[in-house]
């Protein structure tokens, strides 16, 4: 039969004109879009393209209308390009048919309710269509028992269907697809025997003759089996077959239709020939120009087919392919004769060749090497180049070629006929040139998966014929150009995974032919334009992982063809529009990770094709609508992390295809409906972190496919149902943090696949069933915080896969079974808070992987497990509160990963060794209340991550190592109740994070260091029961967070610093058993947080503060003091007279403070006037007579002898005995001394200088004595003593007794220290002594004139010291020099000095 005369050929020849496939249904005529293949030139291309279109437009064409009502097939667009891989298209379409099998009802059998349920497949149909087909086939047979498809034939085998060697169970008249699949399965089941997969088609390099392994199917009896086997071989052996090898000049006569030798022998394998030639035809379609037929004689002759296309379109397709195979068999000579007239023509596009070579030269060396075949010959034979019939370049495909360079060297204007450009998956960089817009005929542009940057050129809008634009996975920036809307033919647009910004342009609404739109993983902002509703052909919309805001437009409901909507991970707000219910073809709806609010619309139940729904991580409220029960095809429902309330509707039981249900982290209440047991396909059920109550329904045992059951963090009650043991596929079970009671049911031993079991924080009682030993796959067994009784069953030792065993906080008793040593995979073993006895398992770390071992608060005895010594994997070890024995020096090793160690409250001995410094990750070390001896190793300072160190209640000796100051993260240091000695090392002041310091009950001595104020975060300071001496440093008052202060049982003396009253957070204060004296500072009245106080056994006196803690304390807190009074039983009350006297004294002091200055001023004026008046009457003979002033005052300015005064003071105070001490300050102590002349003075003795040459402490206060020798605080403002060799040192100028105020606190110190107060005293003392001495006594040897002269000089000097400008006042050195000079510079007598001279005398001292 000739090609022209074949009926099948004529059918495809005039496809557009003939209006094929008119169906019996009313108004089902097919509207066919013009196809791109010419049926006169390529009928095979027509057949495959039309087949593809039929499936793409299936709903509209109504081809697949079956007898059952509403069973139309919905087909997703396929991923294979029919121009490149028609076989892939056919296989994928076959796969998709089986994915929709339930809806098509193809496999409906005679048995009632035996529809096939298909689980989602694991193969990617884009990557492995054959794998997909085989997996689906396997799944069909896995469900055989339910479907009763494979019932034995019982001898009724039909003749002619025994090609596979065994009777088949499908009736080929009723289910040809079932026949095909069964035979395919059998073929692969017998693969090794049939040697189908043996090395096929080993080609000879010389003559390329094909050696074909015999196929196992008879093409006369089973052409479908042949087709599938050969298709498989083609894909598996593609590289070895060298089908696409370039023609090497050894073409066999008669088989040159494709331009290259074919490897199949048509006499031996006509089906192989058909498939190979079909593949080649599409690869070389335009070049081959095969099958140009005459326009006349185009009448259509249709051969009757045996399958009904209304009932079985797949059968029709397969039969048609078979007919075409027979056609090719009978007319191979036609292919050879026709193709012989079409040879490759030489290239006439030298311009194109030059442009390609120029671009090649701009690429890197490796890329040029890859394109080494690009030489001077015509480009039509070059790698990646395809030319049209005029030898112009039409296709440029260099995807995944490793090219590195830019596009700027590519002259796009040199390729006017270029229709396809694919440079995807290379290393191209730079921007996209604007010249790309000159490719006006381009239909396919793919620059995806490169390193392109910059903006998308606006000129891209000139490519009006463009069908596919792929620029995804680059670094493109800027906004999407408005000109994108000019590409009205565009079918696929993917700009995802770039850095695009701005909003989605409204012009995108012009792309009415768009079926695929992906802009995900960019930085697109703004709202979704309402024009999106114009894209009625859109099947995929992906805008996820952007910054899109605003609400979802209601126009989204106009996308009637939409199958997948992905808007997740954006900033969308508002409600889900009810119009979304119009998307009746929608299969995937992803809106998670947004800010959507409101309730889930009832219209969601209209999406009956929906397969997956994810609205998680939003702000949705309200209850789950019952209409969700209409989503019978739903397999995935995720609503977690919202605010959904109400109960779970019973309609949830209708979702029999549901495999995942995630409602966790909401506010769902009520009980779990029993209808949950109807979800037979459910694999994962997540209802945790809600407010569910009631019992777990027994119907949950019907979920036989369930693998994950999470019900934790609810309020479920009752016992665990026995039916839980029916979930034999269960892998993880978590019922923790509920109110479950009763015992763990023995049926749990049936869960042989269980790997995770958590029942923690419940009220489960009873014992652990021995059936637990059946769970050999169990890795985590978590039963803490329950009421489990009895002993640990030895069967737990059979759980060889166990990694995490947690039994803490129960009521377990007895010994740990020896079988526990078998658990060599344990990483965490927790037995805390039980009643276990005996010894710990000695081989607990036999596997060397143990990380956490806690057995604290039990009754264990014996040694520390010996396997722990070398257990370097340990992170956490807690064995405290037992009765363990052993030597910490010998039983413990070096643990580089150890974070937490607590062995306290045991009977351990030994010493701390230097190896603890090698535990560099240790943060928590507690060894308290043991019998550990020796010194604290200095190497402990190398454990720099240590936060807590508690070595208290042991027998440690020696000093506190200064290296502990290196533990900068330490916030708790407990060394109390040991035998430590020495002082507190100053290096501890570096512990700025310290919150608790307890050094009580040791043998420490020295003074309490003032640097404790550096530890600003201290909450507890306990230095009690030591030998600390000296006073309480006032710096303690700066510890504003301090809550506990205990300095009791020491040798502290002096007064309580008033700054202690500033500790407003202090709750407990204990200063008892010291030698403190004086009054309690009045600042204690403000200590409102104080709840406990003890100041007993001191020498304190005066009234108690008014704080609540003092008012409510017992007498024991104040006993054994000198004279405390207050309203406490056992203490004397403070008398009202005493209070009255005190008030009078206060008033008198106020009056004195006001009256005395005024009186002194008046007296001073009177004296000055009197002196002036008297001086005028002086005789001139007194001018040269010396006068001696005699005074008994050792401290008079002119009689002062420092050495004599010092000896008198030492004698009077008996070398500064403490009984004469009346006060303690920051720089020294004040002593009361009665000198030999009877004069009573207060003497301040400075403390011993510190290492830096300055007295320890801060010099702020001096003490004055009133007439009753009571000390009062007075601020003399004394200058600080400076270090002599420091940069701010200046010579000290002034008397030893007093230094006037000066700027000693600043860095710059004036050389002159002014004596303002000294000047006033000098005037008063001079004038007073002058008047007294003149009127009472006079020495005969002293000249009156001389005395008058000296008096005048003194007044002048005093006047200068009172100058208004401090810089104009004289220094003490100048004053001393003038007073001691023998020859006075000023001869004026006192009585001759005028007031103007006196007041202006300072003008000569201007600095």
Automatic annotation (TrEMBL):
One of its GO terms (cellular component) is plasma membrane. It is a single-pass type I membrane protein. PROSITE patterns: LRR, PROTEIN_KINASE_ATP. GO terms for molecular function: ATP binding; protein serine/threonine kinase activity. Residues 351-388 form the Leucine-rich repeat-containing N-terminal plant-type domain. Pfam families: LRR_1 (PF00560), LRR_14 (PF23598), LRR_4 (PF12799), LRR_8 (PF13855), LRRNT_2 (PF08263). It is an enzyme of class 2 (transferase). InterPro entries: Kinase-like_dom_sf (IPR011009), Leu-rich_rpt (IPR001611), Leu-rich_rpt_4 (IPR025875), Leu-rich_rpt_typical-subtyp (IPR003591), LRR_dom_sf (IPR032675), LRR_N_plant-typ (IPR013210), LRR_R13L4/SHOC2-like (IPR055414), LRRC69/RLP (IPR052595). SMART domains: LRR_SD22, LRR_TYP. ATP binds at residue 1244. Keywords: ATP-binding, Cell membrane, Glycoprotein, Kinase, Leucine-rich repeat, Membrane, Nucleotide-binding, Phosphoprotein, Receptor, Repeat, Serine/threonine-protein kinase, Signal, Transferase, Transmembrane, Transmembrane helix. Residues 650-736 form the Disease resistance R13L4/SHOC-2-like LRR domain. It comes from the Eukaryota. This is non-specific serine/threonine protein kinase.
């Amino acid at each position: 039969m000739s090609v022209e005369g074949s009926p099948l050929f004529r059918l495809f020849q005039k496809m557009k004109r003939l209006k094929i496939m008119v169906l019996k249904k009313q108004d089902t005529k097919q509207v066919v879009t013009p196809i791109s293949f010419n049926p006169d030139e390529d009928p095979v291309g027509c057949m495959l393209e039309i087949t593809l279109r039929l499936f793409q437009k299936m709903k509209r064409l109504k081809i697949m209308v079956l007898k059952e009502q509403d069973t139309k097939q919905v087909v997703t667009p396929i991923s294979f390009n029919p121009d490149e891989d028609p076989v892939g298209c056919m296989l994928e379409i076959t796969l998709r048919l089986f994915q929709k099998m339930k809806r098509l009802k193809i496999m409906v059998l005679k048995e009632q309710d035996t529809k096939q349920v298909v689980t989602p497949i694991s193969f990617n149909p884009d990557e492995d269509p054959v794998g997909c087909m085989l997996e689906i086939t396997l799944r069909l047979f896995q469900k055989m028992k339910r479907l009763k498809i494979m019932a034995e034939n019982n001898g009724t085998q039909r003749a002619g269907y025994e090609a596979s060697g065994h009777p088949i169970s499908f009736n080929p008249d009723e289910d040809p697809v079932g026949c095909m699949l069964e035979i395919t399965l059998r073929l692969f089941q017998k693969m090794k025997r049939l040697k189908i997969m043996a090395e096929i088609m080993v080609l000879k390099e010389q003559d390329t003759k094909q050696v074909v392994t015999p196929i196992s199917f008879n093409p006369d009896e089973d052409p479908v089996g042949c087709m599938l086997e050969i298709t498989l071989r083609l894909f598996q052996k593609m590289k070895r077959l060298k089908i696409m090898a370039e023609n090497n000049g050894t073409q066999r006569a008669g088989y040159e239709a494709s331009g290259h030798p074919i490897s199949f022998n048509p006499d031996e394998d006509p089906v192989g020939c058909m498939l190979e030639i079909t593949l080649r035809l599409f690869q070389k379609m335009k070049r081959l120009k095969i099958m140009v037929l005459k326009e006349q004689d185009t009448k259509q002759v249709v051969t009757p087919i045996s399958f009904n296309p209304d009932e079985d379109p797949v059968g029709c397709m397969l039969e048609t392919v078979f007919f075409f195979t027979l056609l090719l068999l009978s007319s191979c000579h036609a292919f050879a004769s026709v193709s012989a007239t079409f040879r490759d023509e030489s290239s006439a596009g030298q311009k194109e060749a030059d442009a390609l070579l120029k671009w090649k030269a701009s690429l890197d060396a490796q890329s040029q090497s890859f394109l080494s075949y690009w030489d001077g010959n015509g480009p039509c034979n070059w790698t990646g180049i395809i030319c049209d019939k005029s030898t112009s370049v039409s296709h440029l495909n260099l995807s995944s070629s490793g090219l590195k360079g830019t596009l700027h060297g590519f002259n796009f204007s040199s390729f006017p006929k270029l229709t396809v450009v694919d440079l995807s998956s290379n290393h191209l960089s730079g921007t996209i040139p604007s010249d790309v817009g000159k490719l006006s005929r381009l239909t396919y542009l793919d620059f995806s998966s490169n390193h392109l940057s910059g903006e998308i050129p606006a000129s891209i809008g000139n490519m009006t014929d463009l069908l596919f634009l792929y620029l995804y996975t680059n670094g493109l920036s800027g906004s999407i150009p408005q000109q994108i809307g000019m590409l009205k033919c565009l079918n696929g647009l993917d700009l995802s995974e770039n850095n695009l910004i701005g909003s989605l342009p409204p012009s995108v609404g012009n792309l009415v032919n768009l079926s695929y739109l992906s802009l995900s993983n960019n930085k697109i902002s703004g709202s979704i334009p309402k024009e999106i509703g114009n894209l009625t052909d859109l099947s995929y919309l992906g805008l996820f992982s952007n910054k899109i805001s605003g609400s979802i437009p209601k126009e989204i409901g106009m996308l009637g063809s939409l199958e997948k909507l992905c808007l997740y991970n954006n900033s969308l707000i508002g409600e889900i529009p009810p119009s979304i219910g119009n998307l009746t073809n929608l299969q995937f709806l992803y809106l998670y990770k947004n800010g959507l609010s409101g309730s889930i619309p009832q219209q969601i139940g209209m999406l009956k094709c929906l397969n997956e729904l994810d609205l998680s991580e939003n702000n949705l409220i309200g209850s789950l609508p019952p209409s969700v029960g209409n989503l019978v095809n739903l397999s995935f429902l995720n609503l977690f992390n919202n605010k959904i309330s109400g109960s779970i509707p019973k309609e949830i039981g209708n979702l029999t295809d549901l495999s995942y249900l995630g409602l966790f982290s909401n506010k769902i209440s009520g009980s779990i409906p029993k209808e949950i047991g109807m979800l037979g396909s459910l694999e994962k059920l997540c209802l945790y972190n809600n407010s569910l109550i009631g019992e777990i329904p027994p119907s949950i045992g019907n979920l036989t496919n369930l693998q994950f059951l999470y019900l934790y963090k609810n309020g479920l009650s009752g016992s665990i149902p026995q039916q839980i043991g029916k979930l034999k596929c269960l892998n993880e079970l978590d019922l923790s943090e509920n109110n479950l009671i009763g015992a763990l049911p023995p049926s749990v031993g049936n869960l042989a696949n269980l790997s995770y079991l958590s029942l923690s924080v419940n009220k489960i009682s009873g014992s652990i069933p021995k059936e637990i030993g059946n769970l050999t796959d169990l890795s985590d067994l978590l039963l803490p915080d329950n009421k489990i009784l009895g002993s640990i069953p030895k069967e737990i030792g059979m759980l060889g896969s166990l990694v995490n065993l947690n039994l803490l906080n129960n009521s377990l008793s007895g010994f740990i079974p020896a079988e526990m040593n078998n658990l060599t995979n344990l990483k965490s073993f927790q037995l805390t808070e039980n009643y276990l006895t005996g010894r710990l398992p000695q081989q607990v770390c036999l596997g060397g992987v143990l990380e956490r071992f806690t057995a604290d608060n039990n009754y264990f005895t014996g040694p520390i497990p010996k396997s722990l010594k070398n257990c370097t994997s340990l992170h956490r070890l807690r064995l405290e509160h037992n009765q363990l024995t052993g030597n910490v020096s010998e039983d413990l090793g070096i643990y580089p990963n150890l974070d937490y160690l607590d062995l306290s409250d045991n009977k351990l001995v030994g010493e701390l060794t230097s190896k603890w410094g090698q535990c560099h990750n240790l943060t928590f070390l507690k060894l308290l209340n043991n019998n550990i001896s020796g010194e604290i190793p200095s190497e402990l300072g190398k454990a720099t991550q240590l936060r807590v160190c508690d070595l208290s209640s042991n027998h440690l000796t020696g000093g506190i190592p200064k290296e502990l100051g290196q533990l900068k993260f330490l916030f708790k240091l407990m060394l109390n109740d040991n035998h430590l000695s020495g002082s507190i090392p100053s290096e501890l002041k570096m512990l700025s994070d310290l919150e608790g310091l307890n050094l009580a009950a040791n043998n420490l001595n020295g003074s309490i260091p003032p640097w404790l104020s550096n530890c600003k975060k201290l909450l507890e300071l306990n230095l009690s029961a030591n030998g600390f001496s000296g006073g309480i440093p006032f710096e303690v008052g700066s510890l504003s967070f301090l809550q506990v202060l205990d300095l009791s049982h020491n040798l502290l003396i002096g007064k309580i610093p008033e700054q202690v009253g500033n500790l407003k957070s202090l709750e407990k204060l204990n200063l008892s058993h010291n030698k403190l004296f004086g009054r309690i500072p009045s600042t204690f009245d403000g200590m409102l947080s104080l709840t406990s106080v003890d100041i007993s056994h001191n020498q304190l006196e005066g009234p108690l503060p008014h704080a609540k803690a003092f008012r409510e304390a017992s007498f024991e807190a104040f006993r054994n003091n000198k004279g405390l009074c207050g309203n406490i039983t056992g203490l004397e009350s403070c008398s009202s007279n005493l209070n009255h006297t005190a008030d009078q004294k206060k008033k008198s002091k106020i009056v004195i403070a006001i009256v005395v200055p005024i009186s002194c001023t008046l007296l001073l004026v009177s004296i000055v006037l009197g002196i002036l008046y008297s001086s005028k009457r002086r005789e001139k003979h007194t001018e040269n007579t010396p006068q001696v002033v005699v005074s008994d005052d050792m401290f008079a300015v002119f009689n002062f002898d420092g050495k004599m005064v010092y000896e008198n003071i030492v004698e009077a105070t008996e070398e500064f005995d403490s009984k004469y001490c009346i006060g303690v300050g920051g720089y020294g102590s004040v002593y009361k001394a009665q000198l030999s002349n009877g004069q009573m003075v207060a003497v301040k003795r400075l403390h011993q200088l510190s290492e830096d040459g300055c007295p320890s402490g801060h010099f702020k206060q001096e003490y004055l004595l009133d007439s009753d020798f009571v000390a009062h605080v007075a601020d003399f403002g004394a200058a600080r003593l400076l270090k002599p060799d420091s940069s701010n040192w200046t010579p000290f100028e002034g008397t030893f007794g007093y230094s006037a105020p000066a700027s000693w606190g600043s860095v710059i110190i004036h050389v002159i220290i002014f004596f303002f107060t000294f000047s006033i005293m000098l005037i008063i003392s001079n004038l007073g002594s002058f008047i007294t001495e003149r009127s009472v006594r006079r020495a005969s040897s002293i000249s009156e004139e001389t005395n008058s002269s000296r008096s005048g000089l003194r007044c002048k000097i005093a006047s200068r010291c009172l100058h208004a400008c401090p810089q104009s006042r004289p220094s003490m050195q100048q004053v001393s020099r003038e007073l001691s000079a023998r020859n006075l510079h000023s001869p004026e007598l006192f009585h001759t000095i005028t007031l103007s001279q006196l007041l202006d005398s300072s003008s000569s001292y201007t600095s």
